[in-house]
Amino acid sequence: MVLARLATAAALIGAAPLLTPLPAAHADISGFTSPSGNIGCIIDVDHVRCDIAERDWAPPPPPTECRFDYGQGIVLQPGRGAWFVCAGDTALGGGAPLAYGDDFSAGVLRCESEPSGVTCRDVEDGHGFTISRQAYRLF
């Protein structure tokens, strides 16, 4: 499981052109899944990424520099806001279910699980995202 998380983080570094490189050691990466299993997230103090398996919406067009899958999830880094994933891997299945009404934090990043989807935010600057089968929102 830890190796899968490290591979996810490593792929995220190389795949997302707007992503600041993460430190080499990632023993503190954790993951969770929505109770429905449709959303999976990985989180550490440097970033949170949530991917979605089934959705009723389409992401915006990919950036020209994206050479991998695009729009299957959203990334948030402290102080940087949120953007769509450009990566050849997935955060799906990265951890145990996070019950509706519960939250998970790493540093200033906090994610909340609700029946309406997963919301992750930087608690210091307020930027974040919501992702669900029905919609997404970057804020």
TrEMBL record:
InterPro entries: DUF6636
Domain of life per record: Bacteria
Keywords, sorted A to Z: Signal
Signal peptide: 1-27
Protein's recorded name: Ig-like domain-containing protein
Source organism of this protein record: Mycolicibacterium rutilum (Mycobacterium rutilum)
